[in-house]
Structure prediction request, 418 residues.
Amino acid sequence: MLDLEVVPERSLGNEQWEFTLGMPLAQAVAILQKHCRIIKNVQVLYSEQSPLSHDLILNLTQDGIKLLFDAFNQRLKVIEVYDLTKVKLKYCGVHFNSQAIAPTIEQIDQSFGATHPGVYNSAEQLFHLNFRGLSFSFQLDSWTETPKYEPNFAHGLASLQIPHGATVKRMYIYNGNSLQDTKAPLMPLSCFLGNVYAENVDVLRDGTGPSGLRLRLLTAGCGPGVLADAKMRVFERCVYFGDSCQDVLSTLGSPHKVFYKSEDKDILFDANTHKVKKFVLHTNYPGHYNFNIYHRCEFKIPLIIKRDSADSQTETCTTYSKWDSIQDLLGHPVEKPVVLHRSSSPNNTNPFGSTFCFGLQRMIFEVMQNNHIASVTLYGPTRPSSQLRTSDLPQSLSTQERCGEEILSTLHHGAWNC
Prediction:
């Protein structure tokens, strides 16, 4: 049984690990993977058809804990303990819930002190006791009568005439004063761990297509002094097609991981010239084969829309755009896609199904079966090299076939993940 410390408006954890509000999904999963012998039977819950309409949930079924992540920014929004019989809980080092201590309303009062009068929800038959960043729910369905509530009283729990011995059914840790209005906070400084994160990415383009990326980056370092005052820094950097590996390293810092051959990519370099050749932007939607390998990239891509009766217009595609809306903007049907099958070498299966790749303005949009964009591959103008040039391709080569060529090239080049 896990023995965890409750920190209102902040976290739930112990000396070895901690689930912190604002933590990225990938870090929470890394904790679960590292302690898989202790924390078992974890479920990932999400909406397959509408992944942005519901929170992304990690359900620790053995321990009675749910971690609710915001569907958009994928940071931890709410920590819910829905079965207090499966876990030990303490506050300021003192247990208020264990096998020997029942989490009664008197025990909560003793451990956390008096608060505002509670709220009774007659539809759910739940009594909610709220502190800042922390709420307790008491089940009232087994009681013979509802609690007598006097809203003018403000003398602590004694003024709420609730039967003695009522125990907590659920506990919530969140940011702010209201569980219903809470939002995932900014990522805490303790979660940076020396890494650099992209807050958003703007795709730069010229007249023919993408030319590079402008990245707004976040990092947390320590200032001078004995106590090392930690602070977050925000800065912008640009990376262009044709940049050398040294240019990228000096711009973005050391890589987080390096991928080779058939592994997935981010920033790809030409094997001969060692210059930036392609960028891959990942949306990290649940239900995709590469889910949780990358953090979500918050990108904006300008699309040139040509109208018959007017000049060209520029529209923006984002991480959350659906493919149907992009097709509507184009004003003409897109050619049939290239079907991309992914599978792992051991079992040769992909439980999430195939995706579809469309070529457009020197970009490849990988589209999931629910119409969301899984990734966008950007490639620069073809330069003369010892390899086959675009001008050498047969003139009858269609957009679909060129898209297929680029996909195969993407899947078989070395890469560098920043």
